[in-house]
Structure formats: C-alpha cells, structure tokens
Design a protein that fits this description.
Low-confidence stretches: 1-18
Order of helices and strands: HEEHEEEEEHEEE
Largest sheet: 8 strands, antiparallel
Mean pLDDT: 91
Strand order of the largest sheet: 3-4-6-5-7-2-1-10
Radius of gyration: 17 Å
CATH topology: Cyclophilin
C-alpha cells in the first residue's frame, strides 16, 4: 500500500509540474523565458505553441515598442510585411490572469475574438487591459520567468514611424526562434 501511495503522489506531482508549458523567445537582444498557463488559457497557449513549432515566428520582429506600456511582436518581418496567420482564436481573457508587468498576452483588433499570431509582453501593470468594465480585455497566457532585463532593454530602444506604423524600433529586434520545452 505504501508503494502505491508513493507512486500515486509521484504521479500527481509530475502531472502538476507539467501543467504549464515553458517557452524561450530567442531574440537578437537576448533570451526571454516564459511559463505559459495552459490551464486557464488552453486555446491561447495551443495557438502560440502552434506558431512557434511551425517556425512562423522565426525572423519576425518586435514591431511596436512603448516603454512603460508593452513590447509587441509576432506579426511582421523586418520589412514590415505581415506574416501568414491561422484563423483567429476565442478570447480567453480571465480575471485570474491580469495584465501585470512581465505577463504575455495576445494582441488583437477591436474585435475581442480576433487574436492570431501577435502577442505582447507587459512592461508595466496594465489593469486597463484586463477584462471587466472596459470590455473583453486582452488574454494573458503566461509570465516571463527570466529575461525581464531583456524586456526592459527592448522597451528602451529608440523608436519611430515606418510608413503608417508607429513606435517601431529603428534598429530591428528580431525573434530568431521560439523554443517550446
């Protein structure tokens, strides 16, 4: 009986540890490691992992950077051409995961269910992006576990306008690859 209980506890602990997905965004400025919450935002994590595993993010840039707000990536290459995307996903914004400093969330248009490949990392607490009085909110699906120094460095780069896009880093910050662990 003691062996069975030990095995059961071991199995439960292993399952609990595997509940979250780990990812590393390898950028031209350093690595950002993420812990993705697939319990609260399963479709959002699956969507991000799908893009990462198909190498869709390789060669994309951080195309919108606003210090003390967020850094956004996953939608454009260095020539500011949009990447091919999959169908939009359902918005999984939850009051359980807030848009706090160091969280990763899905970018979208005014349509709450329009998120595809673009994501952002909150550079500060952005309660105004949470679901509630202001509407649907933006779906947080993980946190930066290490690499906030890289996020901070990206947030400090000089930006400008490229065509009708604003807040574009003047020197491209490239996502080389995203590794799913």
């Amino acid at each position: 009986m003691k062996i069975i209980n030990t095995l059961l506890i071991s199995l439960l602990l292993t399952t609990a540890v595997q509940a979250d997905v780990k990812a590393t965004i390898v950028t031209s400025m350093g690595d950002i490691e993420l812990l993705l919450n697939d319990e609260i935002a399963p479709a959002t994590v699956e969507n991000f992992v799908s893009y990462a595993q198909s190498n869709a993010y390789d060669g994309t840039i951080f195309h919108r950077v606003i210090a003390n707000f967020m850094i956004q990536a996953g939608g454009f290459n260095a020539q500011m051409q949009k990447i091919a995307t999959q169908a939009p996903i359902k918005n999984e914004a939850s009051k359980m995961l807030s848009n706090d400093r160091g969280t990763i969330a899905m970018a979208r248009t005014n349509d709450p269910h329009s998120a595809t490949s673009q994501f952002f990392i909150n550079h500060k607490d952005n309660a105004n992006l949470n679901p509630g009085v202001g509407g649907w909110g933006y779906a947080v699906f993980g946190t930066v576990s290490t690499g906030m120094d890289v996020v901070d460095a990206i947030a400090r780069v000089q930006t400008g306008n490229v065509s009708f896009y604003r807040n574009v880093p003047l020197q491209p910050i490239t996502i080389k690859h995203i590794i799913i662990h």
